[in-house]
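As a warm-up, study this chain.
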Amino acid sequence: MNIKAVIVEDSRLARNELKELIKKHDDIDLLGEAENVDAGFELIQNTSPDLLFLDINMPEKDGFELLEMLDEVPITIFTTAFDEYAIKSFEYNALDYLLKPVSEKRFDMAMEKVRTKLESVQTGADKSKRLKESSQIFIKDGESCWLVKIGDISHFEIVGNYTRVFFGDKKPLLYKSLNLVEEKLPEASFFRANRQQIVNTHFIEGVVPWFNGKLKLTMQNGEEIEVSRRQSYIFKDRMSL
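Now compare it with the structure written out below.
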């Protein structure tokens, strides 16, 4: 399996260094490189890479801002000259980070992580615009940031013009409308319970009849979600209740 990769890095020297390391790995196809966030965004949109080598500290916009711009984030390896960023990158759930100048041994170790990660992800091209459960999205709320796998999200909820995302014990805001979020979610596992909420059916622990033909769902975290009457009929048919 060939690994499609792109580099987003403002330093030409650092880009050349990465390209020389990549050449020693026959299974990595470098699709392109960019020297700033806007060019990097366009490159990723046009090539849909498996792997992103991303510099954190770039002028005008940093690497984290690029991740915010993407609907689906590739496997990400941060490249940085600063140790404090190396620690912070794990809060973003990056697969790995490489400190500049990058040694061949350290690069090879990172590539083994990439191969292991890709082997665990569903293969095969998905022609639709919808995300897969294995896809990850980037969420930034205040100073906190996460790279979250779609399948780990229990539900979404409208908060004004934004959407609250529930995963683990976290519930940050995503700066997109619930309708836009719904268009990207895998239909097999996510269900629109009502105008305000979308649930991941894998996280439903209990279903009970409610008033006026409605249903009430109990999620694994104990939260209760009311399904509208119209959606209750659809839910029953879908779940063969």
